[in-house]
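Hi F.,

I've been meaning to write this up properly since the lab meeting, where we talked about keeping a consistent format for the predictions we share between groups. The idea is simple: the sequence comes first, exactly as it goes in, then the structure tokens exactly as they come out, then a line or two of notes. No screenshots and no reformatting. I'm using this chain as the first example so we have something concrete to point to.
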Amino acid sequence: MKFYPGYKAFDLFDDLFNDNYASKAPANLLKTDITEKNGYYELNMEVPGIHKEDIQLELKDGYLKVTATRNSNNEEKDDQGRIVRQERFSGSCSRSFYVGDNVKQQDIKASFENGELKITVPTQAKKEEEETKYIPIL
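Output, unedited:
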């Protein structure tokens, strides 16, 4: 399709068979900024168009997995109730971050506001204070 260099529809078709096309697509999903503040990592993640109920956080084997799911069904009818247009979309995306094997679920905090998910994870797991034990002398 290189015979039509100015025609954009053919460029898209050619990109489908390019190995780089698949690697570029996920780059725009769940964009994340990670900063370190006061003993915590703060993850600020953009999730536009997703509701709080459609986001799931999972901690397993030291990995924090964030999954966002979106389902929509748009149906337009005319005055007589006949369907003029009907579109459906269903999709999900996820990201995983290694947070360490010592981090516990109760140490991770998350909030969601205006399409932005904020997650705080401690940089080091809290050390449990060891109880002082005396050794008896015999």
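Notes:
Confidence is low (pLDDT under 50) at residues 7-27.
The helical segments are 8-16, 19-24.

If this format works for you, I'll send the rest the same way.

G.
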